[in-house]
């Protein structure tokens, strides 16, 4: 095998291993966004009954669930069913997630749905996972971007401009773990609206 064949073979093996690692069970999530008037808006939600704060959607896998299945299921549950996991799966297609440690983040462009409609969407009574989030807001990426210019201190509270938050919000900060995931996407130049 000549040098070029070894390089191609090694690159192919690396791709197979990477795809296999992404397909395995791991925590995953999704940032839903839409674009309007030259601005990107992120659908964020407050963690119900928690001091975590505001973030995109995500969590741990169910047994046997792939990363993309975890991400789309969590987005469906945590958006109270406003976005269907099968539809989200079609939008993602073969996109690769942004990996921050073992957490996989997908960035998915969706149609605009008013935040109050999401908050009041009927949920299946038998599934508490649909009530993990309490309030919802479309927050401009421009309000998040300055915080992503440097490494995230995961013990710090990064405050949100109150003008973006709905009445009844119990926390006024971004969850720093989620900001760390976003920072990874910035560093790796993986945000779809910046390509």
Quick check: average pLDDT?
90
Span between N and C termini? 37 Å
The residue fraction in helices comes out at 25-40%
Shape: globular
Judged by helices, strands and strand pairing, the structural class is: alpha+beta
Examine the secondary-structure arrangement and name the CATH architecture: Alpha-Beta Complex
Identify the quaternary structure here: single chain
| Beta-strand residue fraction | 15-25%
The residue ranges in which pLDDT falls below 50 over 5 or more consecutive positions are: 4-22
The CATH class is Alpha Beta
Radius of gyration: 18 Å
CATH topology: Nucleoside Triphosphate Pyrophosphohydrolase
Give a description of the structure:
The chain is 32% helix and 23% strand. It has one domain: Nucleoside Triphosphate Pyrophosphohydrolase. α2 packs across α3. By secondary structure, it is of the alpha+beta class. It is built from 6 helices and 9 strands, in the order αββββααββαβαββα.
């Amino acid at each position: 095998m000549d040098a070029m064949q070894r390089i191609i073979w090694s690159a192919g093996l690396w791709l197979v291993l990477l795809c296999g690692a992404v397909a395995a069970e791991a925590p995953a999530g999704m940032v839903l966004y839409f674009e309007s008037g030259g601005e990107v808006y992120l659908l964020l939600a407050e963690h119900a009954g928690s001091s975590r704060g505001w973030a995109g959607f995500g969590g741990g896998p169910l047994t046997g669930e792939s990363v993309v299945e975890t991400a789309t299921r969590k987005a469906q549950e945590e958006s109270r069913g406003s976005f269907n996991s099968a539809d989200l799966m079609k939008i993602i297609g073969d996109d690769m997630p942004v990996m921050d440690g073992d957490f996989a983040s997908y960035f998915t462009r969706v149609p605009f749905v008013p935040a109050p409609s999401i908050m009041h969407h009927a949920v299946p009574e038998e599934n508490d996972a649909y009530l993990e989030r309490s309030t919802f807001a479309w927050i401009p990426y421009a309000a998040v971007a300055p915080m992503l210019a440097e490494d995230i201190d995961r013990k710090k509270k990064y405050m949100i401009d109150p003008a973006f938050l709905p009445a009844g919000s119990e926390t006024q900060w971004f969850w720093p773990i989620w900001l760390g995931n976003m920072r990874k996407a910035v560093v790796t130049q993986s945000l779809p609206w910046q390509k």
